[in-house]
Amino acid sequence: MKIIKQIGIIFTVCWLSQVIAEFLPFEFPASVIGMVFLFLCLLTGILKIEHIQEKSDFLLGNMAFFFVPAGVSIMNYFDLLKNNGVKLAVICVVSTVITFAVTAFSVTFTMKLMNRRKK
User: Fold this and answer.
1) Exposed / middle / buried, residue 82 (Cβ in 10 Å: 0-12, 13-18, 19+)
2) Residues 6 or more apart in contact with residue 9 via CB below 8 angstroms
3) Are 81 and 92 in contact (CB under 8 A)?
4) Do the beta carbons of residue 37 and residue 13 sit within 8 Å?
5) Taking the alpha carbons of 64, 68, 73, 79 in that order, is the dihedral positive or negative?
6) Is the distance from CB of 42 to CB of 49 less than 8 angstroms?
7) pLDDT of 52-91, one tens digit each?
8) Contact 13, 41 (CB under 8 A)
9) What is the sign of the dihedral through the CA atoms of 59, 62, 65 and 71?
10) Strand locations in the chain, DSSP E?
11) pTM above 0.70, yes or no
C-alpha cells in the first residue's frame, strides 16, 4: 500500500505540472515545473522525504532504462548522423571543453568568495 501511495504522489505532482504548463501563457516544460513544484513541497514541509523515498530510489536506480527508447530512435536518423558525424563530434568536444572551463571558473570564483567571507 505504501508503494501505491508514493506512486500516487509522484503522478499527482506530474499531473499538476501538466495542468500548470497548459495554463501558462508561454511554453515551459511540464517536467521542470514538476521538479520545482516537488522541491517547493519538500521545502515547505507539505511533503516529507519519507512520502516518496522508496519510489524515488527505485526510479533513480532504473533511470538508464528510461533512456533506451531515445537511444533506439536515434537509429532512425543514422544516415543524417553518418553525413554530419565529424561536425557533431567537433561540437561535442568544443561544448564539453567550454562546459569544463566554465565549471572550473565558477568553482574557483565561488571558493574565492567563500574565503573572503570567512576573513
Assistant:
1) exposed
2) 47, 51, 52
3) no
4) yes
5) positive
6) yes
7) 888 888 888 888 888 888 888 888 888 888 889 899 999 9
8) yes
9) positive
10) none
11) no
